[in-house]
Specification:
CATH superfamily of the largest domain: Ribosome-recycling factor
Radius of gyration: 22 Å
Number of helices: 4
Oligomer: single chain
Distance between the termini: 52 Å
Low-confidence stretches: none
Number of strands: 6
Number of domains: 2
CATH architecture of the largest domain: Orthogonal Bundle
Largest sheet: 4 strands, antiparallel
Mean pLDDT: 88
Shape: elongated
Strand order of the largest sheet: 3-4-6-5
CATH topology of the largest domain: Topoisomerase I, Chain A, domain 4
Helix content: 55-70%
Order of helices and strands: HEEEEHEEHH
Length: 186
């Protein structure tokens, strides 16, 4: 039972780490990346739909994204959705294709992005700590129900803390590398 509790905690923490990777991919840096547009939702027949499900996304140049809708009638709503996102992008339409230039980041915008990054990172740290708390409560419940001994509980608590520290350091290193990427001036 102890191993299952520790394994479940590890599994949930690795999911939190993957979620952070996805969130960081959508944080804008100086380079164009289709991941920037993956978080954008477009009204498609009354349903908010991810942009990648209604259009083909491309990166022909380091500072340009292209969005080609599968349905030409979606060009307007896609353009509106990109404009209204907080990415600061200004798409241009040629009737069939949207060209989205990715302008260089200003110093002020870089600082805003770093603040946003720190918020996202703290949310994921909190998630990891909550997973640790849940696992610790499970272990205490097992001890109370006399399904494990006090020694087993102490070893498991130490192992969960070690796993938590490991995942916290992984989160921090991902955050630091993304922060350097944002602050890097090309």
């Amino acid at each position: 039972m102890v191993k299952e509790t520790v394994a479940a905690a590890k599994n949930r923490m690795s999911k939190a780490l993957e979620d952070l990777r996805r969130d960081l991919a959508s944080v804008r840096t100086g380079r164009a990346s289709t991941a920037l547009l993956e978080q954008i939702k477009v009204e498609y027949y009354g349903t908010p739909t991810p942009l990648a499900q209604v259009a083909t996304l491309g990166v022909p140049e380091a500072t340009l994204l292209t969005v080609q809708p599968w349905d030409p009638a979606m060009l307007g709503p896609i353009e509106k959705a990109i404009r209204s996102s907080d990415l600061g992008l200004n798409p241009m339409s040629d009737g069939k294709l949207l060209r989205v230039p990715v302008p260089p980041l200003t110093e002020e915008r870089r600082k805003e992005l770093v603040k946003h990054l720190h918020k996202v990172l703290e949310n994921h740290r909190t998630a990891v700590r909550n997973i640790r708390r849940d696992a610790n409560e499970d272990l205490k419940r097992l001890l109370k129900d006399k399904k494990i001994s006090e020694d087993d509980e102490k070893r498991a608590l130490a192992e969960i803390q070690k796993v938590t520290d490991d995942f916290s350091s992984k989160l921090d290193s991902l955050g630091k590398s993304k922060e350097q990427e944002i602050l890097e001036i090309r």
